[in-house]
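Milestone M4 deliverable, item 7.
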Amino acid sequence: MGNREDLLAGAKRCLIEKGYSRTTARDIANVSGVSLAGIGYHFKSKDALMNEALFEAMREWGDDLAATLAADVKQDATPLERFEAAWDRVVESFSRLRPLWVTQFELLGQIDHIPEVREQLVHGIKEARLGLAELFEGIQPESDPERARLTGTFYQAMLTGFLSQWLFDPDSALSGREVVAALRMIAS
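Output delivered:
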């Protein structure tokens, strides 16, 4: 790896270990083995480096979630059975990716002060919604954009809400079976 890649890897590691706002340029330089001047040379600022590290980590999480949701799906499963199995895998991913989730929630409190992060999160959420519609429901956004938008927004709201509860109290996280039961109660 070159210095730029080392800095990016170091910044991602710092995101996981310290969070977004508690990471200093010196922390990144120490972890990456690259000088402080390298941050300015390759990224112009520590904030730009941290933002790029955050967005790269979010893309990796999206890829991880897509692989998680695609694993072991029975072809003859009903939509609710598919949802139940997928939701259980999503909840399992919460603990594996906890540092990234904590960092994203940390940024929500600062969103009005970091416009470039807000802009990227708005773009990322739009992509995530479409991805969730495709992953959970098999909806191709190109063929049914409005259905993908509505369904994906619903899944994004559920995911964010359940995740925030899980961050406070992982033991109370609802299983896929429990979410399906709740959805049935609401629908009836």
